[in-house]
Amino acid sequence: MPADTMTLAKALNLSLRTALEDDRDVLVMGEDVGRLGGVFRVTDGLQKDFGEDRVMDSPLAESGIVGTAIGLALGGYRPVVEIQFDGFVFPAYDQIVTQLAKLHARSGGTLRMPVVIRIPYGGGIGAVEHHSESPEALFAHVAGLKVVSPSNPSDAYWMLRQAVRSDDPVIFFEPKRRYWDTGAVDPDATPPPLHRAQIVRAGTDLTLVAYGPSVKLCVEAAEAAAADGHSLEVVDLRSVSPVDFDTVQTSVEKTHRLVVVHEAPVFFGAGAEIAARITTRCFYTLEAPVLRVGGHHAPYPPARLERHYLPDLDRVLATVDHSLAY
């Protein structure tokens, strides 16, 4: 099958469709995923083609959705469940961190939890409270969970396929502001491993590390910096747990500077762990402290104020200038 250009949302739909076709044990479940096709239409048409016994609309009960998925996994199925918005995941947090993440270790390795939890996350769509949060660090802190986030349609397709095949639970964060971005998807390609970072733009003066919705912003920052004579390398982390520190380290050893960008609050965010690890690994290589750009340590604001909360091009470039000034 030749590569085709599609939106990130369509790539996710194609990935789920392929998973349902390839494995009868794959099930899709969540609020409005069936007849409606999901709030963002990611599951559009799946219930019609695969039936209500494989693509199931659930009650409005996130804890019940995840608890049921755990039971299905114990019964040999591979459930893919959707949490309708990022801020709605917290009623299921207990099931995720107390049961889903622990059962493999608790059983001495005899039980597997092949569960994927899809979560649209992040801001930039003008939504109300509890619809624009970035809680990835809360899940990355929990041993037993894999946490990933694609930034483009090709990764969305392949990373979801890899997540569904995983015998471990995967928290799959989908950047909702990128659902309508387009790109080429080749179903016959050979994808990189699920947790390997990718260099999406080469550079020599400074490394920008991001994942999910912030990767495109960093590429735009690198393009803007090039006009001023600065060469920035952009690394798409792709996975927040585990983190491919080796790829980041190799980049920083070349550029000697690092700025980490994410929408989540900087305070205790994923960027803090990256900064600490790279500072330790590259102490004698760094020519400036590792700097971070992210959201503020405050509740996500109303839609009219979110542009002041989210990292933007000016904030990223100002931080780049700060690093280059050392």
From TrEMBL:
Its cofactor is thiamine diphosphate. InterPro entries: THDP-binding, Transketo_C/PFOR_II, Transketolase-like_Pyr-bd, Transketolase_C. The keyword Oxidoreductase applies. GO terms for molecular function: magnesium ion binding; oxidoreductase activity. The lineage of its organism: Bacteria, Bacillati, Actinomycetota, Actinomycetes, Kitasatosporales. This is Alpha-ketoacid dehydrogenase subunit beta. The keyword Oxidoreductase applies. Keywords: Oxidoreductase, Thiamine pyrophosphate. Residues 6-181 form the Transketolase-like pyrimidine-binding domain. SUPFAM superfamilies: Thiamin diphosphate-binding fold (THDP-binding), TK C-terminal domain-like.
